[in-house]
């Protein structure tokens, strides 16, 4: 396993500072084929900005553009600072709210970009000046950060397993969405629905105050429901708990109930 600073593996390109919406509108190509996409900080909404002529020269300086023949990592500089995404199969440029990472030739076949993002996304979020919406990603810190580079075979094998598990996760999430949609249909209220008071449907019984010391002095197997809503029950003696009642009614329940924290 070898260690390298990121700047040895990637060239990190800054964006075009003069690339505002105004200059983009002023630099549209006569032939639509010459227009390329503009990426900004919102990498998940990359195409909200209009396209621009790839041959544009703004204030005497040609804009930086990136070829569809290569695969890049784009990094959000601010806004959602530090988030990474892959861009490929498209000619594009960036404004100064983003950075582009391009693999250097010696590492072209030694780095799986998908693996790199999964492995180092959390680290890149740590290269942001602050954790609020005003945070800015630090190119200087990132390019000097040293990473461990495992073999490309190990990276590819990892991605095969990762993608398998991700498909399972996606399938489960889709099933949950479908179930929730069905539940919404079942519980949907219509004009024919009759309304009841809670007291008409349920017997509402409040509990008694029990302190932890008392439970320790009366150990057992009967669970005590408390304000701990994460199912962290206390367990005590059934005989001892049988001595508790509220308004003459036992506080031991042997049927399905709903409890809530008050």
Helices, strands, pairings?
Layout: E1 2-5, H1 6-9, E2 10-13, H2 21-25, E3 35-39, E4 52-53, E5 57-58, E6 61-62, E7 71-76, E8 84-88, E9 92-94, E10 98-103, H3 113-125, H4 139-143, E11 146-149, H5 152-186, H6 198-201, H7 212-217, E12 222-224, E13 234-236, H8 238-241, E14 245-246, E15 249-250
Parallel strand pairs: 3-9
Antiparallel strand pairs: 1-11, 2-10, 3-4, 5-6, 7-8, 7-10, 12-13, 14-15
What is the H/E order?
A: EHEHEEEEEEEEHHEHHHEEHEE
**β-strand amount:** 15-25%
Strand order of the largest sheet: 2-10-7-8
Average residue pLDDT: 86
Q: What is the molecular shape?
A: elongated
Total strand segments: 15
- Count helical runs: 8
The residue ranges in which pLDDT falls below 50 over 5 or more consecutive positions are: none
Radius of gyration, in angstroms, nearest whole number = 30 Å
Termini separation (Å)? 56 Å
The helix fraction, in percent, is 25-40%
Q: In this structure, how is the largest beta sheet organized?
A: 4 strands, antiparallel
Structural class: alpha+beta
């Amino acid at each position: 396993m070898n260690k390298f600073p990121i700047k040895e593996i990637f060239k990190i390109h800054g964006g075009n500072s003069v690339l505002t919406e105004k200059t983009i509108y002023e630099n549209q190509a006569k032939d639509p084929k010459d227009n390329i996409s503009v990426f900004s900080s919102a990498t998940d909404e990359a195409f909200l900005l209009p396209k621009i002529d790839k041959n544009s020269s703004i204030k005497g300086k040609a804009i930086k553009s990136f070829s569809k023949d290569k695969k890049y990592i784009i990094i959000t500089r601010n806004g959602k600072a530090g988030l990474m995404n892959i861009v490929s199969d498209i000619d594009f440029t960036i404004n100064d709210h983003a950075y582009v990472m391009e693999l250097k030739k010696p590492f072209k076949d030694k780095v799986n970009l998908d693996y790199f993002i999964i492995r180092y996304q959390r680290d890149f979020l740590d290269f942001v000046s602050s954790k609020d919406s005003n945070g800015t990603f630090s190119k200087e810190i990132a390019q000097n950060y040293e990473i461990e580079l495992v073999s490309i075979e190990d990276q590819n094998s990892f991605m095969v397993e990762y993608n398998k598990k991700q498909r399972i996760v996606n399938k489960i999430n889709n099933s949950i969405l479908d179930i929730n949609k069905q539940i919404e249909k079942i519980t949907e209220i219509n004009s024919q629905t009759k309304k009841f008071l809670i007291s008409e449907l349920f017997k509402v019984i409040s509990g008694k105050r029990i302190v932890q010391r008392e439970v320790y002095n009366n150990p057992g197997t009967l669970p005590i429901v408390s304000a701990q809503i994460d199912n962290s029950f206390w367990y005590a003696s059934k005989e001892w708990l049988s001595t508790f009642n509220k308004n003459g009614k036992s506080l031991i329940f042997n049927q399905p109930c709903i409890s809530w924290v008050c």
